[in-house]
């Protein structure tokens, strides 16, 4: 299986709705967590997105 086929297999998984989600923290949330520690941690956990690592779509 070469690289191109591998890539296409991954993309077809995404196309059929089988994404590979990862948590992505927003800049605002991270800043708040540092500046207003520990209360800012609430902002950090609210400012989080689940995004697919392969195609970047929100999941
Ligand atoms: Zn995806």
From TrEMBL:
TM region(s), chain numbering: 25-45
Matching InterPro entries: BRI3 (IPR019317)
Keywords: Membrane, Transmembrane, Transmembrane helix
Annotated protein name in UniProt: Uncharacterized protein
């Amino acid at each position: 299986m070469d690289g191109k086929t591998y890539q296409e297999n991954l993309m077809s998984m995404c196309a059929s709705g089988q994404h590979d989600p990862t948590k992505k923290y927003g800049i605002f949330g991270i800043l708040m967590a540092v500046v207003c520690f520990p209360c800012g941690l609430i902002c950090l956990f609210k400012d989080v997105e689940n995004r697919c690592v392969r195609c970047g779509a929100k999941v």
